[in-house]
């Protein structure tokens, strides 16, 4: 039987592959923009092409087509915004708004006692929402959800400052640095906090201790 206390959060959440893939189109945008003589059209074309290639590879590897449409859709929308305004830094504007919305959503989920970390892990482990009836898991998931709020806020602050300064190249660099490396760090800290918050005798994430009827 698997030791559920030793099962990693990274394993349950699917690792860092998705976050790594998400950092490639913005990098392609900056590269295309530079090679095209600071042409927003070149950058947009490179980003969309990269997004399509990454999406097709993910589908071939077993990802759902719906996930491909969503990820490519975001790249296309970001490129459209930049093309409409003519400002290359605006390619990253959508990412700033999405991170701000994510920070608010995660924080709200903790306050209303529906921490999104518990929701995601509960669905990933097949136990759905039974964890909400376990006071120890509820407390642990609420505590361990705060690093996720922090990572989104950090991106908003960094990306927002660079966007205001019009630093396109730095935006591309930090988009990569604050995507999968930050995601890995967030998962590691969140997993550590989750384990620390659970009592030593708790059976693990897959086995909520339900109150007796």
Features:
transmembrane helix, UCP010219, membrane, 11 helices, 213 residues, transmembrane, DUF3159 domain-containing protein, single chain, mainly alpha
In short:
The chain has one domain.
Written description of the protein model:
The longest helix has 21 residues, at 40-60. This protein has helices spanning 9-12, 17-22, 24-35, 40-60, 65-85, 93-111, 116-125, 135-144, 146-165, 168-177, 180-197. 31% of the residues are buried. With 213 residues, it is mainly alpha-helical. The chain is built from eleven helices and no strands. The chain has one domain.
**SS elements, strand count:** 0
Structural class: mainly alpha
- Write down the Rg: 19 Å
The stretches of 5 or more residues where confidence is low (pLDDT under 50) are: 1-6
Q: What characteristic shape results from the CA principal axes?
A: elongated
Estimate the strand proportion: under 5%
Count of runs of 4 or more consecutive helical residues: 11
Terminal-residue CA separation: 27 Å
The profile of the biggest β sheet is: none
Give the domain tally: 1
Query: How would you spell out the order of helices and strands?
Result: HHHHHHHHHHH
Question: How would you state the average pLDDT, rounded?
Answer: 87
What is the percent of helical residues? over 70%
């Amino acid at each position: 039987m698997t030791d559920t206390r030793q099962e990693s959060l990274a394993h349950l959440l699917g690792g860092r592959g998705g976050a790594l893939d998400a950092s490639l189109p913005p990098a392609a945008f900056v590269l295309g923009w530079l090679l095209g003589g600071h042409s927003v059209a070149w950058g947009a074309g490179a980003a969309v092409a990269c997004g399509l290639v990454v999406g097709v590879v993910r589908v071939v590897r077993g990802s759902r087509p719906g996930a491909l449409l969503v990820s490519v859709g975001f790249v296309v929308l970001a490129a459209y915004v930049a093309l409409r305004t003519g400002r290359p830094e605006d390619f990253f504007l959508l990412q700033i708004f999405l991170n701000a919305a994510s920070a608010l959503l995660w924080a709200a989920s903790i306050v209303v006692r529906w921490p999104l970390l518990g929701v995601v892990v509960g669905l990933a482990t097949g136990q759905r929402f039974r964890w909400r009836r376990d006071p120890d898991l509820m407390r642990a998931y609420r505590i361990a959800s705060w690093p996720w709020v922090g990572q989104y806020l950090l991106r908003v602050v960094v990306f927002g400052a660079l966007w205001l300064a019009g630093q396109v190249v730095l935006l591309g660099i930090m988009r990569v640095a604050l995507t999968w490396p930050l995601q890995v760090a967030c998962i590691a800290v969140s997993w550590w906090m989750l384990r620390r918050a659970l009592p030593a005798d708790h059976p693990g994430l897959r086995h909520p201790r339900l109150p007796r009827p």
